[in-house]
Amino acid sequence: MPCHGGKAIKPLFLKTRALNLRFVVFVVASVALILYDSGGAESKRLRLVLGTLVYPVQLAVDWPVRLGKEFADGTRSRRALLTENDTLRTRQVLLEAQIQKLAVLQAENARLRELLQSSSRLDDRLSIAEILSMDLDPYRQSIMLNRGLVHQVHVGQPIIDAHGVMGQITHVGLNTSTALLITDTNHSLPIEVNRNGLRTVAQGTGESRWLTLPYLPRNADIREGDLLITSGLGGRFPRGYPVATVKTVMRQGGGRFAQVRAEVTAQVDRSREVLLIWDHPPLDTPPRAEHLPAEEP
Asked: Which residues cross the membrane (predicted)?
């Protein structure tokens, strides 16, 4: 056998003959299997057995591919869901903001309708004014309006809302004015009991919802639930506007006067708009706001 460098060299033709022999064996085996498979029930049973044996191997081979595909599909689905959730969340926020604005507009329209319905029942000249700011300090309760001299507003002019009397103008600027609320401790208002015509004075308490009637004797005909209205005395507030409803009447103790507290009918701490009343011509020499005298019954 030929040698090269001390190593034997295998003949190339021997390897070729071995490959040809294997090819012939495989071809013969394939033809035999084809012929056997086209036979009867035995070939079918053999194919079934072989398929059953090979099935776990097919599953094991296919499992990584299927798992990778499911993972990719799940990732894409999760990204799509996250994107959709972000879009829906943004849309929800926008819709909620629009709903809030709609609710505000509906409430404002309801208040304006109440004011217009209130003004339609009155013979006095009226004008709607918007509240710009509100001061509900216990020692000073007032509001600023967006009406002034250019709108013919004058000192002493009464203001109401859709539910009752709120106060009177104490200072007038060119385009704005300030009104003292009836709940201010320095404000007095001539009133009468709607049930029997009993007259007295309602005094502010510094609380945004309450008045007191400090000058009623103990035997006065007044009871809880009585409606108090403006009496028209003093020449500032026209007669007949609702002021407050009596909530407590106390006659105990040795004092000469009853202790009466009444809740104002106007929404002093919640109104956004008010009505200015022109019941009489403006005063020729209106007093300064800080020296506005209290009205006498």
From this structure: 19-36
Last residue of a domain, one of 77, 97, 121: 121
Which residues, including other chains, have CB under 8 Å from residue 178's CB and lie 6 or more apart?
Answer: 142, 143, 144, 145, 169, 170, 171, 172, 289
Higher pLDDT, 130 or 22: 130
Do both 86 and 223 map to the same domain? no
Nearest alpha carbon to residue 125 among 152, 155, 162: 152
Q: How far apart are CA 141 and CA 134, in angstroms?
A: 8
Q: How many domains does the chain have?
A: 2
pLDDT tens string 84-94: 888 887 777 66
Per-residue pLDDT of 11-55, as tens digits, reads: 544 556 666 777 777 777 777 767 666 656 666 676 677 667 766
Domain that holds residue 59: 39-121
Sign of CA dihedral 28, 30, 35, 41: positive
Give the integer Cα–Cα distance in Å for 126 and 38: 108
Residue 246 and residue 146 in one domain: yes
Q: Which two tokens stand for residue 221?
A: 């005909």
Length in residues, the chain: 297
204 closest CA partner among 250, 266, 147 = 266
